[in-house]
Design goal:
- This protein is 34% helix and 14% strand.
- A hairpin with a 4-residue loop joins strand 5 (127-131) and strand 6.
- The radius of gyration is 22 Å and the shape is elongated.
- By secondary structure, the protein is an alpha+beta fold.
- The chain has 3 domains: 2-123, Uridine Diphospho-n-acetylenolpyruvylglucosamine Reductase, domain 2 (2-Layer Sandwich), CATH 3.30.43; 127-238, Uridine Diphospho-n-acetylenolpyruvylglucosamine Reductase, domain 3; 241-305, no CATH class.
- The protein has 12 helices and 9 strands.
- Mean pLDDT is 80; it is low at 215-229, 238-246 and 296-305.
- Helix 2 runs antiparallel to helix 5.
């Protein structure tokens, strides 16, 4: 067992780099000044809680007293702006950053194999809005999956993403892992359910991606990523828009047989767009329909007039 684990340790160490202790001290001081002492943790006992997720070599190494990864600092941001501040300081000092959600990952993706900073996002757990007209929920990245499901259930709603890790995982973790769940064969994976993201980037602060569903136009900012492009601050989840990426029926509950019917059935925040579409001539509506079909993953279809 020990020799088998050693091969894993060697593979991890091949990716490890050395952090300047001076830069680390400067980063810790800057973080404490910006966020306060309570949000910046260097206590060895607490750091030990972040040495393993559910990746079995990490669990084994932790139990043996020789963890394969350990952060130098854990930061627990209280606001979205705190997340951007942490990334800006880390970027300036060239300190690696790893986000931590529920610690339920099975592949070691949340482990700080290079040391540096772990951002524990679980304090950002607010459900910002549940829109029962558009059937969307806006939620911060640190929200626990089971808690979110329970809140939606009180309104007779559900989240179509239900992974085996729902008891421990966070919404941000769902997206970072590009996860699937027991309902994914019907509703798609998590990236099919994300409408937009608000993201903290290392050099650019806070930004929002365009509020459109996933489509086949190439890589987009709303796609999950490895942290190179930024750290999800909170996410805007929706059931898939069956039509632009899939096939009929359309709308969340399958009420529409065509894309135009789906557009005309919308209300709420989409009412102005619905009215603008209704005001178009039949030819212009058909041309717009053709354009929307050009965004699908399906073969192009000619619209009968």
């Amino acid at each position: 067992m020990q020799s088998y684990l050693s091969s894993y340790e060697m593979s991890w160490k091949g990716f490890m780099t050395t952090i300047s202790q001076g830069a680390l001290a400067d980063a810790e001081a800057a973080l404490t000044s910006a966020l306060g002492e309570a949000a910046v943790i260097t206590t060895p006992v607490v750091l030990g809680d972040y040495t393993a997720d559910t990746y079995w070599p990490a669990l084994y190494a932790k139990a043996a007293g020789t963890p394969i990864a350990r952060p130098d600092v854990v930061v627990r941001p209280r606001t979205e702006e705190d997340v951007a501040t942490v990334l800006a300081i880390a970027h300036e000092q060239r300190i690696p950053v790893v986000p931590w959600g529920g610690g339920s990952g099975t592949q070691g993706g949340s482990l700080a194999i290079n040391g540096g900073i772990v951002i524990d996002l679980r304090s950002l757990a607010e459900v910002i809005e549940i829109d029962e007209t558009s059937m969307t929920v806006t939620v911060q990245a640190g929200k626990n999956g089971r808690e979110l499901e329970a809140q939606l259930n009180t309104r007779g709603l559900m989240l179509p993403h239900y992974p085996a890790s729902v008891e421990w995982a966070t919404v941000g973790g769902y997206i970072a892992a590009r996860g699937s769940g027991v309902l994914s064969t019907r509703y798609g994976k998590i990236e099919d359910l994300v409408l937009s993201l608000r993201v903290a980037t290392p050099a650019g602060g806070l930004m929002e991606t365009i509020g459109v569903p996933r489509h086949a136009m190439g890589p987009e900012l709303a796609d999950p990523h490895d942290g190179e492009m930024g750290l999800a601050r909170d996410v805007f989840l929706t059931r898939p828009l069956w039509g632009l990426a899939e096939t009929a029926p359309y709308l969340h509950d399958g009420r529409a047989a065509t894309i135009p019917e789906a557009i005309l059935a919308h209300g709420g925040d989409a009412q102005p767009q619905r009215d603008a579409f209704a005001a178009l001539s039949p030819d212009d509506q058909a041309n717009l329909h053709l354009f929307l079909l050009s965004l699908t993953r399906e073969p192009k279809v000619r619209v009968a007039r």
